[in-house]
């Protein structure tokens, strides 16, 4: 029998088309039935048109159905993938802009910080609804593969409160692995260990990465039987491009001894040291591309991508279809997990799972990101042991903000929500308690339509804002905010924007940003 894969939030064209291609690259899975669901019928139709054309061109037996009824999509599903962004770009705008009034300058704002915390408040009720439907109508052993952010908080809620077997998946480990290979190549060439034309790729460098999503540390790195961890700082500093674009990551490597998975801009917003003074932010970031630290960079890229997809869709339909060939397969973990569970072929990746003693100096109930192995018997997570103490301390600070945020989303307790923002490292470095209390109220009111569990508290928050006294805010657009381009402006680089819009990893190619 063909497997059924349900995709929730299938209007996310890069993720949906990419993961579907990757699954259909596996010969045994080429009769998969995909059930695409989205709340936006227009986006859903465009993605389905592209995918049906790809299937026909490759001559496989796969099928695609679309529906606005989530339970219909989930009915009998063996695997469920979530690509949802609750509140869309409209809510995302407030995640970035309201904290700026209080001096909190986020590059992305989808994982931690005020933006990530409010994103969790929107996302957790929605994903718990998904979990309820999965338990009621999906296959008994259905696996939920969550790609939605904030990864750790949503996966935490689905496992502990949704009671559904949920794995969080992210491409951050693969991205950093590629950088490490490049740094080792530069270092090794400088030491005369390889020839001028010799290359070092990811397949040559064995890694073990452990921590929490977007704060995962490369705790073991081996190349040619050399332990590269002691040499990694020298290796990264040997690459001129990295010295310019990865200042925060290199500084953390210098001070904590290990490289972190997430990009320069992302990492800078999870810590209290690099974005707290506007006058210093530009010293730590690079504006060559958004992921290196641009204020609201991901919001800009997503907004431009959506505009471009709408504008450019006819060209996508006339372009060559995707090819279901091994060399065209992407690196996202989801297809490899499904392949291993269905065929028994072993896959090793890094997954977000309930800790349960895998990392021994992080809480057992938190969501960790660590190596896992998949075969027909399931997903196995070997014990990593203790993280280096400083790395564990950085992770634990974020875990407590996550815990408070998850509990706030479940209970609708406004004090827990505000305490979560207080415990957030960057927010605590920038704001005092009255500012945090008011900022949380303002974000609750602005996002009311996407916060069902907060409906009793939102009128109280609105009343507090109206009656005052109000804490002064500022007219601040960020230390490094760039212009969001119109379709007409993007036409100048049509091929570049077309490629970016189709990628699930919006920082994969790192095109130059334009002021």
Walk me through what this model shows:
Helices cover 48% and strands 13% of the residues. The chain has a six-stranded parallel beta sheet, sandwiched between helices. A three-stranded antiparallel beta sheet has the order 7-8-9. α13 packs across α21 (494-502). Mean pLDDT is 94; it is low at 510-515. The chain has 21 helices and twelve strands.
Strand order in the largest sheet: 3-2-1-4-5-6
Largest sheet: 6 strands, parallel
Mean pLDDT: 94
Q: Which structural category do the helix and sheet elements fall into?
A: alpha/beta
Unreliable residue stretches: 510-515
Q: What does the overall shape look like?
A: globular
Number of helices: 21
How many beta-strand segments? 12
Radius of gyration: 22 Å
Distance separating the two termini: 53 Å
Strand content: 5-15%
Helix amount, in percent?
A: 40-55%
What's the topology here?
Elements: E1 4-8, H1 13-24, E2 33-37, H2 41-58, E3 63-67, H3 70-74, E4 79-82, H4 88-101, H5 113-137, E5 143-146, H6 151-160, E6 166-168, H7 172-190, E7 205-212, E8 215-223, E9 226-227, H8 232-237, H9 240-245, H10 247-256, H11 264-268, H12 278-284, H13 297-318, H14 333-343, E10 347-354, E11 367-375, E12 378-380, H15 389-411, H16 414-423, H17 425-430, H18 433-446, H19 458-467, H20 487-490, H21 494-502
Parallel strand pairs: 1-2, 1-4, 2-3, 4-5, 5-6
Antiparallel strand pairs: 7-8, 8-9, 10-11, 11-12
Helix pairs in contact: 1-2, 1-14, 4-5, 4-18, 5-6, 5-15, 6-15, 13-21, 15-16, 16-18, 18-19
């Amino acid at each position: 029998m063909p497997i059924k894969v349900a995709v929730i939030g299938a209007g996310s064209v890069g993720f949906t088309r990419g993961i579907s291609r990757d699954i259909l690259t596996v010969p045994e899975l080429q009769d998969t039935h995909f059930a695409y669901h989205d709340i936006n019928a227009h986006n859903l139709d465009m993605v389905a048109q592209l995918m049906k054309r790809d299937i026909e061109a490759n001559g496989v037996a796969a099928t695609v159905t679309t529906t606005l009824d989530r339970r219909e999509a989930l009915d009998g599903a063996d695997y469920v993938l979530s690509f949802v962004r609750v509140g869309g770009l409209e809510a995302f705008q407030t995640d970035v802009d309201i904290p700026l009034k209080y001096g909190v300058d986020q590059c992305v704002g989808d994982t931690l910080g005020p933006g990530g915390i409010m994103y969790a408040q929107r996302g957790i009720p929605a994903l718990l609804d998904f979990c309820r439907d999965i338990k009621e109508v999906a296959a008994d052993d259905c696996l939920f593969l969550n790609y939605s952010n904030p990864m750790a908080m949503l996966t935490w809620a689905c496992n502990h409160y949704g009671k559904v077997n949920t794995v969080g998946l992210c491409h951050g480990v693969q991205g950093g692995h590629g950088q490490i290979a490049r740094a080792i190549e530069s270092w090794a060439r400088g030491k005369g260990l390889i020839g001028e034309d010799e290359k070092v790729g990811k397949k040559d460098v064995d890694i073990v990465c452990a921590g929490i999503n977007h704060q995962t540390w490369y705790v073991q790195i081996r190349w040619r039987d050399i332990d590269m961890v002691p040499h990694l700082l020298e290796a990264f500093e040997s690459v001129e491009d990295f010295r310019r674009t990865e200042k925060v990551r290199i500084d953390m490597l210098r001070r904590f001894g290990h490289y972190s998975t997430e990009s320069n801009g992302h990492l800078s917003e999870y810590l209290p040291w690099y974005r707290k003074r506007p006058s210093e932010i530009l010293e730590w970031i690079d504006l060559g591309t958004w992921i290196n630290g641009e204020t609201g960079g991901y919001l800009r890229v997503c907004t431009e991508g959506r505009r471009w997809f709408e504008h450019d869709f006819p060209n996508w339909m006339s372009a060559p279809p995707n090819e279901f060939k091994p060399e065209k397969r992407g690196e996202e973990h989801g297809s490899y997990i499904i392949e291993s569970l269905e065929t028994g072929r072993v896959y090793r990746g890094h997954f977000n799972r309930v800790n349960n003693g895998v990392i021994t100096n992080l809480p057992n109930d938190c969501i960790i990101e660590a190596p896992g192995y998949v075969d027909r018997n399931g997903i196995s997570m070997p014990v990593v042991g203790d993280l280096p103490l400083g790395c564990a301390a950085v992770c634990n600070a974020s875990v407590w903000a996550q815990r408070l945020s998850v509990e706030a989303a479940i209970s609708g307790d406004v004090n827990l929500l505000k305490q979560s923002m207080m415990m957030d490292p960057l927010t605590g470095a920038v704001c005092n308690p009255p500012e945090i209390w008011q900022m949380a109220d303002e974000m609750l009111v602005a996002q009311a339509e996407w916060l069902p569990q907060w409906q009793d508290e939102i009128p109280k928050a609105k009343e507090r804002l109206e009656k005052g006294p109000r804490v002064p805010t500022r007219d601040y657009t960020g230390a490094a905010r760039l212009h969001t381009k119109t379709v007409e402006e993007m036409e100048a680089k049509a091929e570049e924007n077309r490629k970016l819009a189709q990628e699930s990893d919006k920082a994969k190619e790192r095109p130059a940003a334009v002021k």
